[in-house]
Every structure is written in C-alpha cells, then in structure tokens.
C-alpha cells in the first residue's frame, strides 16, 4: 500500500509528527508539506493521511484550500486525519469547523497528536500573545504517541 502523509505546519510540530508517523508505517510512505508542494498527485496513493495544527481556532489556510479543491479525489481514497492542538477539550469542534463534512465522514480515524510551543520560533508579538492567552513562558512539547498508534492501527498501516 502506498501512503501519503500530507501536512500543514507553522512552527514544525505537525511536520515532526508526520515524520514520526511515517517511520512506523509499513509499506511505501511519502511525506509532503502542502505549503511547499501544492501540486501533489493523489492518484498514485492508496491511503492519504492529512494533518495540521490549530492556531487561534483555525487550521492552515493552504491545507483547508487543498481539501476543498481536491474533495472529490479525496473521497475515493482511504483517509485518516490528525490535528495538533493545545486546546484538548475542543479538538472535535475544530474537526467539525475546519474540515469539509465529506472528508470527516470518509476518514477512517481522526486523531489528536498533542501540541508544542517552540518559543524560539515565534516572533515577539506571538510570544506576547501566547504568554498572555495560554500562560506559557517556555518551550514545551507533548507528543501523544498513543494517538499515533491508534491512527496506524485503525487505518491498518502497521
């Protein structure tokens, strides 16, 4: 089975998760950042894992646009979804508001891979907002490996 992991990442956490996931997948796996490669050919893949991070209640614009532009092609593929988000209580809400209904309905599994704050990658304004809104002073990372394993098992990729 050929698998494509298609992700959007602002500061690198969704990307890190995509590569960790790819190392666990049996068979051929390609990892692609949708921001850098918008002309991804979906035809050659059997399974497509789509993921991104939530910032201020939204996923990356280019990822959302890709879903809308390729909705029909994606409906004909096995799919799985993941989000990276620090607002653990509202992950389902973000799935509902940020993904087209048809993509949600077709997904074999929806996972939440955790969150990270990489303070060294943020500009002054984003640091100030994060400190005020989330009371975060230092970088932190919480990868939910068990959620990765659930996605892989439910999607029959291990």
Task: Describe the structure in your own words.
This protein has 158 residues and is of the alpha/beta class. The chain has helices spanning 13-24, 61-69, 71-75, 91-98, 101-106, 124-134, 145-154; strands at 2-7, 28-33, 47-53, 78-84, 107-112, 114-117, 140-143.
Index terms:
158 residues; 7 strands; Rossmann fold; alpha/beta; 25% strand; 7 helices
Major sheet details? 5 strands, parallel
Strand percentage: 25-35%
How many beta strands in the DSSP annotation? 7
CATH architecture: 3-Layer(aba) Sandwich
Strand order of the largest sheet: 2-1-3-4-5
Question: Which range best describes the helical content: under 10%, 10-25%, 25-40%, 40-55%, 55-70% or over 70%?
Answer: 25-40%
SSE ordering: EHEEHHEHHEEHEH
The CA-CA distance between the termini, in Å, is: 11 Å
Helix count equals 7
Specify the overall morphology: globular
Write down the overall mean pLDDT. 91
* Overall domain count: 1
Radius of gyration: 15 Å
